[in-house]
Amino acid sequence: MDNATDSLLETYLFETGTLLEQLDELLIDAEQNGDFTEDNVNEIFRSMHTIKGSSAMLEFNSLMEIAHHIEDLFFYIRENGMDTLSSDHKSELFNLMFSSVDKLREEVGKVENSEPLDTNIDSFIQNINDFLNKISNNESDAAANDAPSAAGESAAPGIDALIPDMGSPYLLHIYFDEDCGMENLRAFMLVTSLRETEMPFTFYPEDIETNSSSSEYITENGFYLGFDSQAEAEQAVDYLSSAGNVRAFEIVQAPSKEEPKEPETPSAEPETKQESSKPAASDKKPAEKKQQSAGGAAHAAKQSLISVNQSKLDSLMAIVGEIVITESMVTSSPELQDIKLDSFLKSARQLRKLTDDLQDISMSLRMVPVASVFQKMNRIVRDMSKTLNKDVRLTIIGEHTEVDKSIVDSIGDPIMHIVRNAMDHGIEATSEERVAAGKKPQGEIILAAEHTGSEVIISVTDDGGGVDPDAVLAKAAANGILTKPEEEYSKKEILSLLMAPGFSTNTEVTEYSGRGVGMDVVKRNVENVGGVISITSEKGQGSCFTLKIPLTLAIVDGMEISVGNAVFTIPIANIRQSFKAKETDVVLDAAGNEMIRCMDDYYPIIRLHELYSMDDAYTQIDDGILIWVEASDKSYCMFVDELIGEQQVVVKPLPSYLNNFNIKNSGISGCTILGDGNISIILDVASVYYTAQNTFF
Question: How many domains is the chain partitioned into structurally?
Answer without folding.
Answer: 5
